[in-house]
Amino acid sequence: MSAESNDLRQAGLKVTHPRVKIYQVLLSATEADHWSAEEIYRLLVERSEDIGLATVYRVLTQFEEAGLVIRQRFENEHAVYELATGDHHDHLVCSRTGQVREFNDDKLNQRLLEIAAENGFEYTGQTVHIFGEVR
Amino acid sequence: MSAESNDLRQAGLKVTHPRVKIYQVLLSATEADHWSAEEIYRLLVERSEDIGLATVYRVLTQFEEAGLVIRQRFENEHAVYELATGDHHDHLVCSRTGQVREFNDDKLNQRLLEIAAENGFEYTGQTVHIFGEVR
DNA sequence: GTGTTTGCAAATAGTTTGCAAGAAC
DNA sequence: GTTCTTGCAAACTATTTGCAAACAC
């Protein structure tokens, strides 16, 4: 049994053709790739996969609920999806090119925890987007 | 001439009834209020103002372009608008109630600048959302 | 008076849903 | 064989746009 099938099954999802293919697309993404449902759909079409757009949305939602992927929303844009690697990270986004870079900074995370505490919030999560232009 | 009219004119916008009314609604918002176009529209209807939803969207977009307001996007939701006060701030959002609290932390801002620099990005802006539950 | 703005209805973009046919186990 | 999943088309939500009438200056 393939590793992908195993991952799906472990997430409590029946192993179907669309799910495996969509999971493979996500596995093939690099740090700079943050694909929308539409883009994933187009990648599948390019690979001659006969999977409907609605299914892509449904599967991505199931993946998110199962904790396999994380849905991000940069600025105005539509949602983009990336595999949940287990370790948290935030994003640097180039305002000019849209290029994305991931980072994870302990000092930053620590300060965010403190800010939450100072304001009487029990921390549950964070979204940090730094905008800039690649030099 | 009212202060509101002045603000609009200074922003390069002709003073019209819908613009003044929408601006007044925004002025009446507290730190915890982050209203969507739809909500602003409903507030206007409650005040017996006969202003169309499309106009609310158009005016808010003009306000944003003029630097009068800032458009935010929390999580999945629609866009919300707040007056640009000049000083930057970030947001704490209660995952349970949706309640919003603003903050501005120098240490945090400093660290974000450093992270941008470390990654070869010329800093242009930031969006920080801390999620938590109000204790 | 002239150019800008508005209201309405229709269009659009992204996403979700109902349902009958098809796949997984 | 039964239950879950998929594809398609239609529905939906948030937002934008075309256009003729109304307004600001």
Which quaternary structure do these chains form?
A: homodimer
Biggest interchain interface, per-side counts: A-B, 32 and 32 residues
- Tally of helical runs of chain A: 5
Our estimate of the beta-strand percent of chain A is 15-25%
Counting helices, strands and paired strands, the structural category of chain A is alpha+beta
Instruction: Summarize the main sheet of chain A.
Output: 3 strands, antiparallel
Compute the separation of the termini of chain A in Å: 46 Å
Runs of chain A in which pLDDT lies below 50 for 5 or more consecutive residues are none
Secondary-structure element series of chain A: HHEHHEEEEHE
Based on CA inertia axes, which overall geometry of chain A fits? Answer: globular
> What topology, given as strand order, has the largest sheet of chain A?
1-3-2
Mean pLDDT of chain A: 94
Q: Give Rg of chain A in angstroms.
A: 17 Å
Number of strands of chain A: 6
Helix content of chain A: 40-55%
